[in-house]
């Protein structure tokens, strides 16, 4: 019995020794850490580019606070992979509409990424009722000539809402002096940013101490710009055919009331759902239009949807 006990004790000692040796071999040395990075699934630290800018205005990346804040946004948006892929897919569909409007108005192309962080390029409605891709408030929409009522809400019209966003941004740039501050003001308002600049006696966004949302705002825009511009660098893999495309449409002018958009849609070989997909600014099943205003309703070209008979 004692012989068996001694044998078992010896085997146990060998096992413990083996486990100890294995643990030492598996310890996080530089050498086996590098092997794991190659052979296993891991989450990688990101290499921050040597230079980044928004609308041609550079980020002061040598400032450790700025470095950490852009690192955070790059990490968050790189490793939220499903959302990232959706941004690539939607950008292919909506950037070709947004880009020429920005260019026409003299607004830097980088502001298309502001739309990405505002709404994810969807017709979102915030808790404060900011609406559409550009998240425009009702009062701002009306002040800038957009129609907002029970029948029609042109904040859902991407072309018209982009024009309003451009007007707002140009005004902010004139007041605040830089595109970076204009971007921040899109979130916090011109008055809010001006007040903070005056209180803290600084002149640019990167020197301001701001609340969480506005403090992250420009960094989020720059991070999305960097990732969407360099998908391979951040591990996003897709083919051109994986991205979303705009369906070609033609415009139909309507200058009278429409009593039933279901019947209206059928006259063009589509259903009500398809009509609303292409005209989300139509907010009801009918259009009163007592003033005889001219509206341009988009109808998809034939062959992209099943015809309705």
From TrEMBL:
It comes from Yeosuana aromativorans. Belongs to the transglycosylase Slt family. CDD domains: MltD-like. InterPro entries: Lysozyme-like_dom_sf, Transglycosylase_SLT_dom_1. Residues 97-201 form the Transglycosylase SLT domain. This is Murein transglycosylase. The lineage of its organism: Bacteria, Pseudomonadati, Bacteroidota, Flavobacteriia, Flavobacteriales. It comes from the Bacteria. Pfam families: SLT (PF01464).
């Amino acid at each position: 019995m004692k012989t068996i006990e001694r044998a078992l004790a010896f085997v146990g000692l060998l096992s413990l020794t083996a486990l100890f040796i294995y643990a030492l071999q598996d310890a996080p040395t530089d050498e086996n850490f590098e092997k794991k990075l190659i052979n296993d699934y891991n989450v990688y630290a990101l290499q921050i580019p040597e230079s980044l800018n928004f609308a041609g205005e550079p980020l002061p990346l040598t400032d450790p606070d700025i470095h950490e804040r852009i690192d955070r946004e790059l990490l968050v948006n790189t490793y939220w992979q499903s959302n990232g892929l959706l941004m690539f897919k939607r950008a292919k569909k909506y950037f070709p509409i947004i880009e020429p409007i920005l260019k026409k108005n003299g607004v830097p192309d980088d502001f298309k990424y502001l739309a990405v962080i505002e709404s994810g390029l969807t017709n979102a409605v915030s808790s404060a009722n900011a609406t559409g891709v550009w998240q425009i408030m009702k009062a701002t929409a009306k002040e800038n000539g957009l129609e907002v009522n029970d029948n029609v809400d042109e904040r859902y019209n991407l072309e018209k809402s982009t024009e309003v966003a451009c007007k707002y941004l140009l005004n902010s740039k004139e007041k605040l002096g830089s595109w970076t501050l204009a971007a921040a003001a899109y979130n916090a308002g011109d008055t809010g940013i001006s007040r903070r600049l005056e209180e803290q006696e600084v002149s640019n966004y990167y020197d301001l101490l701001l609340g969480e949302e506005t403090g992250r705002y420009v960094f989020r825009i720059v991070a999305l710009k960097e990732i969407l511009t360099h998908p391979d660098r951040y591990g996003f893999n897709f083919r051109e055919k994986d991205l979303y495309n705009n369906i070609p449409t033609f415009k139909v002018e309507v200058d009278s009331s429409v009593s039933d958009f279901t019947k209206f849609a059928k006259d063009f070989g589509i259903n009500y759902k398809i009509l609303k997909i292409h005209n989300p600014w139509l907010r009801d099943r009918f259009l009163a239009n007592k003033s005889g205003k001219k509206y341009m309703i988009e109808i998809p070209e034939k062959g992209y949807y099943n015809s309705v008979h």
